[in-house]
Amino acid sequence: MGGGSREPLKGSAARTDSAPGDLFAAATGPNTGLPLGVDVSSWQGSVDWTTVWNTGARFAYVKASEGPWKLNDYFNQQYNGSAAVGMFRGAYHFARPNLSSGKSQAEVFVRSGGGWTADGKTLPGALDLETNMSDSSGDCYGLTPAQLTGWTKDFTTTYRALTGRDAPIYTTYYFWQDCLGGSTAFSTSNPLWIAHWQVDHTRVLKPGGWSTFTFWQFDDHGALPVDQNVFNGSLDALRQFAVGRAVSAYASYFKYSNMPSIYGRLPNGTFRALSWDEYSQLGQPGYQTLGPVSFVMNSWNGTIYLIGADNKGQILSFQDWDAYGRPNPTVSKLIPGTYFTTKFDSKLYYMSPAGEIPATDADYKAAGSPPLTLPTRYVKYDWDTTVYQQKATSLTASTATTVSHDQWAAAGFPAPQVISYIPGTTFFKYTNLGTIFMKTPTGATHPATYDEWRSAPLSAQGYTDAGQARFVMNSWNGTIYLIGADNKGQILSFQDWDAYGRPNPTVSKLIPGTYFTTKFDSKLYYMSPAGEIPATDADYKAAGSPPLTLPTRYVKYDWDTTVYQQKATSLTASTATTVSHDQWAAAGFPAPQVISYIPGTTFFKYTNLGTIFMKTPTGATHPATYDEWRSAPLSAQGYTDAGQARFVMNSWNGTIYLIGADNKGQILSFQDWDAYGRPNPTVSKLIPGTYFTRSDNKLYYMSPAGQIPATDADYKAAGSPPIRTR
Predict the structure, then answer these.
(1) Would residue 628 show up in a list of annotated catalytic residues for this protein?
(2) Nearest-CA neighbor of 56 among 35, 39, 40?
(3) Measured over all CA atoms, what is the biggest interatomic distance in the chain, rounded to whole angstroms?
(4) Which end of the chain is more exposed for a tag (fewer CB within 10 A), N or C?
């Protein structure tokens, strides 16, 4: 700025854009939308301000003084000339802290034209404090950070006393950090004018605790003929800054339609009522008019709330209520839309218009003991993977149910809260051991800590006697289990075993009550006292190759309604039989698992079509996907040739069938028919081999795809063929 060499402005081009004073035609800064400005000194000589205006500048800072001297023979032309074309203008002082005090240099500055008046066009005088290039005293003028900070405070305090305004400080990031030690003494009083060239405005470095800049010198050349600056705000905000109104910290303003106060809303969403003086100093900005608010008071605690249309609001202090003119609130035991609840901690909370407030039993009774709104949450133990949904049933009680993966997914996988006690957990103790164990609703066990035991309700803190505990070890993998009378238990770590005194376990190839099994995936699992554990062939052989416990399950295809009972016959093989409705009912209607291949399903292909079909044990057919075909065992992946396929359509209902040599087939959807290239079907009133029949006085069409209910109209449209009886 003031201490460096500058080329003079040249040219006297005639003005071609807006007239002086037309501020809203201004150009804006580098991709910021902010007003442009310049700073000049005697290096620029007599400035053609019309040209500067036409180039887009809307404010100017003019050097008035340097150190203890008045410098700049062109000050009057530059300072008054910029104002004459309609620009905001201010003066700046180039600091020489090693030559005289801050106080004396501030006085020189004001005498030299650096003062301020509230005329709407004069900006507060600025202090130019930058790296020393004027003499040999060093970058920091030979002063320590404390000395230079003190000098700056001396200058700014004096300037404020003389003018009533806080001087903007022009500086650079590294000079401030190095020479003033990053002082934060000015960040809340003096506007920052930062010099940081050729960077995006989002990357401007701001020293000394300043959260933002008021002015930014972004380059020393560009669209404007000298230093390039912007003001961080609108032109209206710049006008407010000139007349002494603070640049607003508020993002927006609003007013309730039935209230006199205007509120400012901060960027973080909070808001506060503005006094008229404060509102006027902000330039009386426009505001949004919101719907009416009401004043409501809880009869049981005397709290008055200011509530909006969304039934949310704020608690009013006596001073707030007094400021509103002490309006008569609506008095209610329980404000509509509010309620009492709990947080699984046996404590009461009142969900007021202002948010959650701890409440007492007396509050609750005084409010009329309304029904509690009972919460739900997802919980788990830190030592178990099972997720539970816990539902409060009263202030002090709750229930917990396990959550399946599908249920958890449907809820959006909410993060479960880790807690010390889940309802339904019980405690037990082995007769010969001192440890108390906890057993979850799913049967998982765990040595209980004192905190876990105490977190249970008193009614659950008792424990049952689980009989004598045994220590048993599998000889084939060395795992030691602590097992109770029910033959279930837990795997012991070395530390656990050591804590019990390293008792000698009973060694067994296969612990009684345990077994190996499969899960229809050709893999082995060991059902140990601690639950299911994946096992290897080596584990199985080391355990003596005991007979497998073979599982049974109910299965179906996603495209067929038939339910099958699948029984494993070995590690890699299984059979499937259809399940009648009565058999399924007798089993309690277990949910069938949807799988890709059911034993007994075969594959076939029509000679003239590329698709491979699958045929279930009940005869239902379906175009096989690649995954369905690959999920079949290798011995079943071959397919038979079903001969030529025919496309046939009933003329009376438009249904198209894909039919094989056995005169059986499937109904084609439009998408299926389209996928086959929309072949022209043979049209027939009655497809050969099909017929109508009657059962229980109802009419059915025995189509290539099986039995279909039919109407009299269907029958007549098909030519009223002979009806077969069954």
Answers:
(1) no
(2) 35
(3) 123
(4) C
In angstroms, the first-to-last Cα distance of the chain is 107
The catalytic position among 107, 128, 227, 452 is 128
* Average pLDDT score over residue span 238-255: 77
Query: 88 is written with which tokens?
Result: 């905001």
Catalytic residue among 39, 107, 452, 628: 39
Q: Are 673 and 657 in contact (CB under 8 A)?
A: no
107 is catalytic: no
Nearest-angstrom CA–CA distance, 75 and 42 = 7
Q: Is the pLDDT of residue 592 over 80?
A: yes
How many secondary structure helices (H) and strands (E) does the chain include?
17, 51
Total Cβ atoms within 10 A of residue 345? 9
Inform me whether the pLDDT recorded for 176 exceeds 80. Answer: yes
pLDDT at 21: 32
Q: Report DSSP state, residue 274.
A: E
Buried b (16+ CB within 10 A) or exposed e, 667-685: ebeeeebeeeeeeebeeee
Residue 508 near residue 478, CB atoms below 8 Å: no
Q: Phi-psi bin for 71: left (phi > 0), alpha (psi -120 to 50), beta?
A: beta
pLDDT at 671 (0 to 100) = 82
Cβ distance 62 to 70 under 8 Å?
no
pTM above 0.85, yes or no: no
Beta bridge partners of 230: 36, 216
The pLDDT of residue 127 is 98
Name, in order, each residue with C-beta under 8 angstroms of 679's C-beta and a sequence gap of 6 or more: 647, 673
Q: If you average pLDDT over every residue of the chain, what do you get?
A: 88
Active-site option among 48, 66, 130, 227? 130
